[in-house]
Design goal:
Bound molecules: 1,6-di-O-phosphono-alpha-D-glucopyranose
Radius of gyration: 24 Å
Number of strands: 19
CATH class of the largest domain: Alpha Beta
Shape: globular
CATH topology of the largest domain: Alpha-D-Glucose-1,6-Bisphosphate, Chain A, domain 3
Number of domains: 4
Strand order of the largest sheet: 1-3-2-4-5
Number of helices: 18
CATH superfamily of the largest domain: Alpha-D-Glucose-1,6-Bisphosphate, subunit A, domain 3
């Protein structure tokens, strides 16, 4: 009977002391904070990943070291379960508990406790694959992770510097290798080949799409996009911008998907010609935001909601053309951030479900459909085909040439999609395939529906955990009284909708607001408004409305008609 290697864990743990003043939390996408403070967390995640693998009979577990869209000094780590999905939520609490043990003795005790409560058979093998993005703190954090893996005598594979979606792909392919569920070759080359082959097949016989400008956020997506170039050949041209992974401070700085989505404007480094289409990845290439310039050169954003509308409609059409619309039902998953217009457009056509922020929630909800299409408004998402849908598509006997073509296209759509997690480059290939099939430019795609004007702002608060939500984060239950004030404020605007939630990846609270109104000038809230947490917070909410152009500025009048408590 195997036992825990207590001495090895303790000795190595002493090299990675926990900072006494930080409380770590496994949040929306794992642990995320200043990279320089994360050594103890990475060591402990190494131990935890080994235990998770043992608990799952030696299946390979993934560990990704990244802080995605966060600023460069941040870093983070998340665990990937055997099918390439996010860590099972019940283990998030174990991760948080292990990360916060104050010292090595307490850590060993916590590990021992976990082994008992989770009934982990320590004689099982432990296998882990890990990767990191381009952040400067990455190498040091990976060294701490390896210390944890070695303390547990885990077998590990270093996938090097690569994107989050590639790591997810590797986990799934290793675990399904040689089985009937094989997901592909378990190498980066296997990934590049699988996606590019399917994409080229989808483009075959269609006019070659115009070259696509890709903003790589100066992150690891640049490396992968560069590799794709030779796999795509003449079938599709990608031109990379913000592909500088070496200049300190460049990562996610004034570029990338989050910049474009939040600011609703082009990165200053990009100029588009009228009619040109482009897209931005985030720092680890699991999110994508599209945009284009109209004939007057004006910028228009095509976010995750627009991707959902485009892709879901296309899949529904293919399923129907294949004669499978009775058997295969397509559903859509969104979060509270989905623009009200997108929800209206999609709900008229398909079942739509709203879940809390975080791909883990969307992913699980999408698994309930034969085909589940999910994209967060921020561009993070994918499409899941159930095993039954896979089976039907691959075994259905077409009775007409139209059905046959639709089935072939569905098979290629399945292969071009990285079903393990949101994957910016896979999503770009999917989008370009749909546009090519429908002969759409950005304008036609954009005209599926018109976004309600909206704004998303970050608010730094003393304790974001004081903000508790319900109803898929659409309502605050705490601090008491705040939701009533939000309701009162929102009620003043036609089609007004707003919600407030604590971020799971940054130490901030996010405020979203939308309404039916015309855009107009930005404005500031005077500092005299910042009287109390509530009024300060509501002033930011009002600012969100104002910046979104949801408040009319009548000449000479008080533009905000600010409630008394703000004055
Ligand atoms: C992560 C999650 C996303 C989430 C985003 C923002 O993205 O994977 O699902 O939408 O964080 O979350 P929050 O508003 O809680 O900070 P990424 O791309 O940063 O890994």
């Amino acid at each position: 009977m195997s036992t825990l290697p207590i001495e090895a864990i303790k000795n190595r743990s002493d090299r990675h002391p926990k900072p006494s003043d930080i409380k770590f939390q496994y949040g929306t996408a794992g642990f995320r904070t200043l990279g320089s403070t994360l050594s103890s967390v990475l060591f402990r995640v190494g131990v935890l990943a080994a235990l998770r693998s043992k608990r799952l009979d030696g299946k390979i577990i993934g560990v990704m070291v990244t802080a995605s869209h966060n600023p460069e000094p941040d870093n983070g780590v998340k665990l990937v379960d055997p099918r390439g999905e996010m860590l099972e939520s019940s283990w998030e609490a174990h991760a948080t508990a292990l990360a916060n043990a104050p010292n090595s003795d307490a850590f060993v005790a916590a590990v021992d406790e976990l082994v008992k409560t989770a009934k982990i058979d320590l004689s099982k093998p432990a296998r882990v694959v890990y990767a990191r993005d381009t952040r400067p703190t990455g190498p040091e954090l990976v060294a701490a992770l390896k210390d944890g893996l070695e303390a547990m005598k885990a077998e590990y594979r270093d996938a090097g510097v690569t994107t989050t979606p590639v790591l997810h792909y590797l986990v799934r392919t290793v675990n399904t290798k040689g089985t009937k569920d094989s997901y592909g070759e378990d190498t980066e080359e296997g990934y590049l080949t699988k996606l590019s082959d399917a994409f080229k097949k989808l483009l075959a016989g269609k006019p070659t799409p115009p070259p696509l400008l890709i903003d790589c956020a100066n992150g690891v997506g640049a490396l992968m996009a560069e590799k794709f170039k030779s796999y795509l050949g003449d079938a599709f041209t990608i031109n990379l911008v913000n592909a500088d992974i070496h200049t300190p401070g460049a990562l996610n700085s004034a570029c990338g998907a989050d910049f474009v989505k939040v600011n609703q404007k082009l990165p200053p480094s990009i100029t588009l010609q009228p009619g040109q289409r482009a897209c931005s990845l985030d720092g680890d290439a699991d999110r994508i935001i599209y945009y284009y310039a109209d004939e007057r050169g004006q910028f228009h954003m095509l976010d995750g909601d627009k991707i959902t509308a485009l892709v879901a409609s296309f899949i529904v059409e293919l399923v129907k053309a294949a004669g499978l619309d009775e058997q295969i039902k397509v559903g859509v998953i969104q979060t509270a951030y989905a623009n009200g217009s997108s929800t209206k457009y999609l709900s008229a056509r398909l079942p739509v479900k709203c879940v809390p922020t975080g791909v883990k929630h969307l992913h699980h909800a999408a698994e309930q459909y034969d085909v589940g299409v999910y994209f967060e408004a921020n561009g993070h998402g994918t499409v899941l085909f159930s095993p039954a849908a896979h089976e039907l598509i691959s075994s259905h006997n077409p009775s007409t040439p139209t059905q046959s073509t639709a089935l072939v296209n569905l098979g290629n759509v399945i292969d071009v999609i990285n079903q393990t997690v949101g994957d910016a480059l896979s999503d770009a290939f999917l989008v370009e395939s749909v546009l090519a099939h429908k002969s759409y430019s950005g304008v036609e795609w954009d005209s599926l529906y018109s976004d309600l004007p909206n704004r998303l702002v970050k608010v730094v608060v003393g304790d974001r955990n004081a903000f508790e939500t319900e109803d898929a984060e659409r309502r605050l239950v705490s601090p008491p009284g705040l939701q009533a004030k939000i309701n009162e404020l929102v009620g003043r605007y036609e089609g007004g909708r707003s919600f407030v939630r604590p971020s799971g990846t940054e130490d901030v609270v996010r405020v979203y607001a939308e309404a039916v109104a015309r855009p107009q000038a930005d404005g500031d809230i005077p500092s005299s408004c910042l009287l109390s947490v509530h009024s300060w917070f509501l002033s930011r909410l009002e600012l969100a409305f104002r910046v979104a152009g949801l408040v009319y500025d009548e000449a000479g009048g008080d533009p905000l008609q600010r409630p008394k408590e703000f004055i």
